[in-house]
Amino acid sequence: MAEIYISLGSNINRQHNIEKGLDALAQLFGSLTLSSLFESEAVGFAGKPFYNMVIGATTELSLDDLAQSLRTIEYANGRNQDAKKFSPRTLDLDLLLYDDVIAQQPAQIPRDEITKNAFVLWPLAEVASALVHPVVGKNYQTLWQEYDKSQQKLSVVPLIWSAKIGK
Fold first, then answer.
1. Considering only CA atoms, which of 112, 114, 135, 140 is closest in space to residue 125?
2. 15-27, pLDDT tens digit by residue?
């Protein structure tokens, strides 16, 4: 079983799409570890604010199969297959960590955004504080403590979701 962490975000119909993303991830993985839900400004483009969080889970899926499963969930929830990197998102699922694997394909693991974006690092530090970044060599709590928090403003917002597994 691989321990995985996924960044989940949306800036289009945010509450609805966060719930749909969580439903799909719970269906795929069962038990989930959830960070707080954060609101953040769009990064890299002028757009509506995002909701972001990090989900921890375990899986028997290979890295390739997991990457494909995440894309399938995005597309099933309205993501345009031709979407630009910096653009509005109905649902954005980015695999951050897959055990301590370091890879470039089928996804960059660990994801570069971990150390660059507060909306990834803060929630990851909440759910995996003691885990050590396999490249940087520091745990996520330390990375968050050292992060320049003036770069990006985040605020915690209420997470409204009840798992619908088996319902």
1. 140
2. 999 999 999 999 9
